[in-house]
Design goal:
- By secondary structure, the chain is mainly α.
- It has one domain: Alpha Horseshoe (Serine Threonine Protein Phosphatase 5, Tetratricopeptide repeat), CATH 1.25.40.390.
- Helices cover 40% and strands 8% of the residues.
- It is built from 17 helices and 14 strands.
- The protein is globular and about 60 Å long.
- It starts with a helix and ends in a 10-residue tail after the last helix.
């Protein structure tokens, strides 16, 4: 029966995401199972927890990966992916209902339903109901965060009243009179959801899956939100709470949270580089049963390989390459990420795709766009550097580097110059988070940063033509399909 319910719930979701008369047309179909128990509402959550995260479009617009020439030139069936890649003003036309918008709000409707209803169930343990509600709030905050990072201006560049994205607080699908909520109010709402969730979440995920909500994941997400608001003291406070939890309490199911030491990976061959280890369980991959991925704190998938619109795949494995811009930051001898993350030239001296002047990524399909241990280490390092606490910053920076550099060649970074340390940290983020969505978010928050802005490649040259990344295109324009139902909305520039 439980399995049947899950299938029916997923059927509802498929119907939700496949139609749209308004920007949020998510009315369920008739003759479907109606949740009536705590387990039913819990089953609504878990198929959804990985269903939507950062959209693949964030991998198209950054500067760390690129398509092969043959692929982007033939990307004609579903042209919006090519428009994003070329950073055009209009990515979506009036005929396109993009999942980047509708999937996010479809899930938010479901989370709203859980939050509104689950606490009122009769005859159920209150603690169980509060935990389910808390997880729904955490997932809702995550979805709003990813939506804001696409369709709302960067927080640090916005005024108090500048329009962001609509905040839908109820599960009433008949309400079509919605307004764009200000950027600042959107972030206040996200943080409020996280803080409320923290009251009722367990310290750690209670099942062997890092998709499940926990205080550890909530603190990590809270830090991530503040970090991308350029509020580094507040981000550091959340990170310190995360580390305190890690240091004082053990996971009841034995889940480990640590940085994977690449020195412990045994090389086999190019096709199967990890001897004796399932690569699906190592960073940056994220899969549903990823309890052995010790780096994952709160898993949220970014599907770089499989998302299709029509018949065209955004990122077929033979089309993704690492940009020269990022490769130029791999200057340290013995960086094991080059060995485990990139394909080298073939035996004839050619690249895997002859049109591509770079190294091809390997084994990148479901990246973790959520919170990982390398993520929290580098966020902590940057926050400390910006606070001029250089010693603490270096501790976290070197804590990651020693697990990524060949131990026979590793030399810890040392400096008393906070600006130099910050530069090292930002470079490390570029090396560590290729094809995870992090880079696009970093570009948004570092656009005006005195140090970080110098590391952004703001032009893309294809076939002798230059495609610039402008400040305006840090924000994706709201799909025209949505705008036609809301002509009173102010469109993004």
């Amino acid at each position: 029966m439980k399995c049947l319910l899950k299938i029916m719930i997923l059927g509802i979701l498929l119907s939700v995401f496949s139609s749209c008369d308004d920007f949020l047309d998510v009315a369920p179909t008739t003759n479907v199972a109606i949740p009536s128990t705590a387990d039913d509402y819990q089953d609504m959550l878990y198929p959804l927890s990985a269903a939507y995260s950062a959209d693949a479009i964030v991998g198209l617009m950054g500067d760390e990966v690129y398509w092969s020439k043959n692929f982007y030139l033939t990307q004609s069936t579903d042209i919006f992916a090519r428009r994003a890649y070329l950073r055009e003003d209009e990515v979506f036309d009036i005929t396109e209902n993009p999942g980047a918008w509708s999937n996010g709000y479809g899930l938010i409707y479901t989370y709203n339903k859980i939050v509104d209803e689950v606490r009122e169930l009769p005859g159920e343990p209150l603690g169980k109901l509060l935990k389910i509600e808390a997880e729904a709030r955490l997932y809702r905050a995550l979805n709003y965060f990813h939506l804001a990072m696409m369709f709302a201006p960067p927080y640090a560049m916005s005024s108090e009243m500048e329009p962001g994205i609509p905040v839908v607080k109820e599960n009433d699908v008949d309400n079509t009179t919605r307004e764009r909520t200000s950027v600042h109010e959107v972030y206040r709402y996200i943080l409020a959801d996280i803080d409320t969730a923290l009251k009722y979440l367990p310290d750690y995920a209670t099942l062997e899956s890092r998709y499940l909500g926990s205080k550890l994941g909530a603190y990590g997400l809270k830090a991530r939100v503040y970090f991308n608001m350029n509020k580094y003291p507040e981000a550091l406070e959340a990170l310190e709470q995360l580390f305190s939890l890690l240091n004082t309490k053990q996971s009841p199911v034995g889940l480990k949270y640590e940085i994977l030491d690449y020195n412990r990976l045994a090389w086999k061959n190019e096709t199967e580089p990890w001897q004796g280890m399932n690569p699906a369980k190592t960073f940056p991959r994220a899969v549903l049963q990823e309890s052995e991925n010790v780096e994952s704190v709160f898993t949220s998938e970014l599907n770089l390989r499989d998302p299709t619109v029509g018949s065209v795949t955004f990122f077929p494995m033979n089309a993704i390459f690492v940009s020269d811009h990022v490769l130029n930051f791999f200057t340290e001898d013995g960086d094991l990420r080059e060995k485990y993350m990139f394909y080298e030239r073939n035996t004839s001296g050619e690249y895997w795709d002859q049109d591509a002047p770079g190294l091809k990524l390997k084994r990148f399909s479901y990246s973790n766009a959520g919170v990982s241990m390398p993520d929290v280490y580098l966020m902590a390092a940057e926050c400390y550097a910006r606070a001029n606490e250089v010693e603490n910053a270096l501790e976290y920076l070197n804590g990651l580097r020693e697990k990524r550099i060949d131990r026979e060649k590793y030399q810890p970074r040392t400096s008393s110059d906070a600006t130099q340390v910050l530069k090292w940290i930002l470079e490390e983020r570029m090396r560590e988070f290729i094809a995870t969505g992090h880079r696009w978010y970093d570009i948004r928050r570092l656009w005006d940063d005195p140090v970080g802005s110098t590391m952004i490649e703001k032009t893309r040259v294809l076939d002798g033509r230059t495609y610039p990344l402008t400040k305006e295109r840090l924000t994706v324009r709201i799909p025209e399909y949505v705008m036609q139902y809301h002509p009173d909305w102010k469109q993004n520039p």
